[in-house]
Design a protein that fits this description.
With about 260 residues, this protein is an alpha/beta fold. It has 8 helices and 9 strands. The longest helix is centred in the middle third of the chain and has 28 residues. It is globular.
């Protein structure tokens, strides 16, 4: 695998670069899990990484480690997104990773606050960030948008409609951009992970450690690094190569409803 960010030379325009000469990648939700691992992988691949999340102190610790930049970011807040984008400078790569699930309940018992959180964060957060950064991504001469949706964007499962509907909507917004920006120097990759052991289930079950651990019991889940390495691969392809969609599951998971536990 090449460790160099791809060259935009086949588009003619000179890319915008920070003073260090490195191209800049923005990673949302970089304070933990897949986002934190992605920030490390992209930095190792030669990118200047701008890490954003609400827990900015966690981003600062990672930024110090990888010579990146940490900025406070709440993707559900337009003012926060505007301030983040203004401070980020020229950007070549956007990883829409901020998101997650809240609750696991039949639709008949839906908690609309949980639904609102999932739609605000996964769907509108991705739309806000992408809309704000598209001009810079196109101007870079070789832009890339990676959106971390989920296998929940491909399937439905019982008690999961708040999350699966949000991930479907996030994915549809992302996939639509592929057509709308056709002809522009920007690529779009959707990453659809299955079970990844991160803080995801702790957040979903609101701190219930036992319930969170049970999600991964009896199988070997993906790690955040497994997913980050795929994003690193995507971000180091030549400018003419668009990996439209990558589905990545643990070997022991055939679908959202079907896993093998020993
Ligand atoms: P995680 O460890 O809980 O990370 C979620 C990240 O999202 C955190 O950094 C969190 O940061 C950030 N975030 C949440 N709300 C935010 C907001 N309003 N503004 C900015 N950042 C926000 O879980 P993860 O597994 O790495 O999740 C990353 C992505 O992968 C999510 O989109 C998730 O839906 C997706 N995914 C996860 C799995 C899985 O099994 N783990 C599977 C498929 C897809 P702060 O709290 O500091 O803001």
């Amino acid at each position: 695998m090449s460790t160099e960010p791809s060259s935009p030379s086949d588009h003619g325009d000179a890319p915008s670069r920070p003073p260090s000469g490195r191209r800049t990648a923005v990673v949302t939700g970089a304070s933990s899990g897949i986002g934190a691992a992605t920030a490390r992988v992209l930095a190792a691949a030669g990118y200047h990484v701008v890490l954003g999340a609400r827990r900015v102190e966690r981003c600062q610790a990672i930024a110090a480690e990888i010579d990146g930049t940490a900025l406070a970011l709440d993707v559900t807040d337009q003012e926060s997104v505007d301030a983040f984008v203004a401070a980020a400078g020229p950007v070549s790569v956007l990883v829409n990773n901020a998101g997650g699930a809240k609750g696991l309940a039949p639709l008949a018992e839906a908690d609309l606050n949980d639904w609102r959180w999932m739609w605000e964060t996964n769907v509108l957060g991705t739309v806000r960030m992408t809309k704000a950064l598209l001009p810079a991504l196109v101007a870079s001469g070789d832009g890339l948008v990676v959106t971390v949706t989920s296998t929940a964007a491909l399937e439905t499962y019982d008690n999961g409609s708040g999350y699966t509907s949000a991930k479907h909507a996030q994915a549809v917004a992302h996939r639509t951009l592929r057509g709308e920006l056709l002809g522009q120097p920007v690529r779009f990759t959707e990453i659809c992970p299955g079970l990844v052991e991160t803080d995801f289930s702790r957040v979903r079950f609101k701190g219930d450690e036992e319930r969170a651990a049970a999600v991964y019991a009896g199988l070997t889940p993906l790690t955040a690094e497994d997913v980050a390495e795929v994003i690193g691969f995507v971000a180091t392809r030549p400018a003419h190569v668009d990996l439209d969609q990558v589905v990545i599951r643990p070997r022991e998971q055939a679908s959202s409803m079907r896993v093998h536990r020993s």
